[in-house]
Design brief:
Elements lengths: L9 H12 L1 H4 L1 H4 L8 H17 L5 H20 L3 H7 L4 H18 L7
Helix pairs in contact: 4-5
Length: 120
């Protein structure tokens, strides 16, 4: 398959060098479970941060931004784990994983004791 003028173009050579240089990083997702093939999570996080500038109508104080970013991080972690953010905050717990684990245990106990009723 002939590539014509693209075969020797400077741009094509730059891309070739870039791919060769980053070969090990490009397909990490094939070697490790849980590593996404795209960067949608990172892009989503950046969008949430960008929206904060509108919400704050400019640059907030360092303390305000720090507190906002902590809450944003917790909110995104809850979203990624399928946990209701407000439920987590109301629980008073400080560890999202422990909260998720306790919720799973409660659901399992409810099913084991037969307390689930058919809501039809």
């Amino acid at each position: 398959m002939a590539l014509g003028p693209f075969r020797r173009s400077e741009y094509a050579l730059q891309l070739k060098r870039r791919f060769e240089k980053n070969r090990e990083k490009l397909f990490t997702f094939l070697r490790h479970n849980g590593v996404p093939w795209n960067n949608n999570n990172a892009e989503h996080a950046i969008k949430a941060y960008a929206k904060s500038r509108v919400m704050f109508q400019g640059a907030p104080s360092a303390k305000t931004m720090s507190e906002y970013l902590v809450l944003l991080s917790i909110c995104e972690t809850c979203r990624n784990r399928g946990i209701d953010f407000l439920d987590f905050l109301r629980s008073g717990q400080r560890d999202v994983e422990e909260f998720a684990k306790s919720k799973r245990q409660k659901v399992a106990e409810t099913y084991q004791t037969g307390m689930v009723t058919d809501a039809r």
